[in-house]
Each structure stands twice: as structure tokens, then as C-alpha cells.
């Protein structure tokens, strides 16, 4: 069974999606270079990810992929994922900003046991928490007991 190249992709995820689509249509395919390109992601752009199949399915597979790219199989159902509400988005933004200021995004190549504790980040986090807690308490006091 000789394998021929059906398509070439620059992203392993796109190749996997195309392979899953073709498998759902009854065409057996193989994604190559998956392991090499996931170990070194820069190789994805250099080599590409090949989708291989049998010569007897070549025309049908290429036709199905072209039709899928044209949107023939798209539906109007929309996403199953509910949109994020503003409170969740705000909480995520606050947590990201706090992680940035406390050193959560900086990282290091040293194992944790060899790193010095990030005291400046811890002190900043405690100070910010104290300010936020005071603001909440003052706000609650003003709402419950207006002047």
C-alpha cells in the first residue's frame, strides 16, 4: 500500500482536524512529522505537516478538503460555549495583573528549591490585598450606614 501526500499543513492541529474530518468521511489517512514538529515547533513551518493516504482515495480526499475550506460543511449552529460574562472577564484581568506584578509570569530556569523566594512579590501582593480589603470594608460601611 503506497501512501501519497493528500495535503500539507503548517500547523499540527490543523492537520489533525483535517485527518479527523477525512476519517469521519470514511477515508483512512495518516498525519506525518507530528512528533518531530511537536518537539521542535519551528520545524512545523519549515517541514510542514503532511497528510498521507492511499492513491485510490487521493482525488476524493482532496475534493473533500477543498469543499470543507470553501465552507460547504459549515453549520449555523454557533458555539456550544457560552460567552464570558463581564464579571469573569474582570476577575481574569485582575488575576493576570496581580500575577504580573508579583512575579508570576517571570519564571526562571532554576528548579524551585534553588530559587530565592520572591519576597518583593509576596509583600506587594499582601499590600494590594490589604488595600483592596480596606476599600471593600469602607465601601460596605458607606452603603450600610450612609452619612
Task: Provide tags for this entry.
147 residues, 2 domains, mainly alpha, single chain
The strand order across the widest sheet is 1-3-2
Shape: elongated
The helix/strand order is: EHEHHEHHH
User: Helix count?
Assistant: 6
Radius of gyration: 26 Å
| Percent range of helical residues | 40-55%
Unreliable stretches, pLDDT < 50, 5 or more residues? none
Give the number of domains.
2
Which structural class should the secondary elements be placed in?
Answer: mainly alpha
User: How is the biggest beta sheet arranged?
Assistant: 3 strands, antiparallel
Name the average pLDDT.
83
- How much of the sequence lies in strands comes to 5-15%
Short description:
By secondary structure, this protein is mainly α. The protein has six helices and three strands, in the order βαβααβααα.
Q: Topology of this structure?
A:
Blueprint: E1 3-9, H1 12-24, E2 29-31, H2 34-39, H3 42-47, E3 49-54, H4 58-69, H5 86-101, H6 119-144
Antiparallel strand pairs: 1-3, 2-3
Amino acid at each position: 500500500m503506497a501512501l501519497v501526500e493528500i495535503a500539507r499543513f503548517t500547523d499540527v492541529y490543523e492537520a489533525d482536524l483535517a485527518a479527523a474530518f477525512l476519517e469521519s468521511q470514511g477515508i483512512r489517512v495518516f498525519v506525518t512529522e507530528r512528533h518531530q514538529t511537536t518537539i521542535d515547533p519551528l520545524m512545523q513551518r519549515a517541514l510542514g505537516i503532511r497528510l498521507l493516504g492511499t492513491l485510490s482515495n487521493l482525488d476524493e480526499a482532496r475534493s473533500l478538503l477543498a469543499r470543507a475550506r470553501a465552507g460547504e460543511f459549515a453549520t449555523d449552529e454557533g458555539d456550544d460555549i457560552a460567552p464570558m460574562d463581564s464579571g469573569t472577564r474582570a476577575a481574569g484581568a485582575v488575576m493576570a495583573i496581580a500575577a504580573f506584578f508579583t512575579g508570576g509570569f517571570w519564571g526562571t530556569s532554576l528548579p524551585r528549591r534553588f530559587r530565592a523566594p520572591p519576597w518583593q512579590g509576596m509583600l506587594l501582593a499582601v499590600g494590594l490585598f490589604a488595600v483592596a480589603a480596606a476599600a471593600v470594608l469602607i465601601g460596605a460601611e458607606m452603603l450600610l450606614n450612609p452619612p
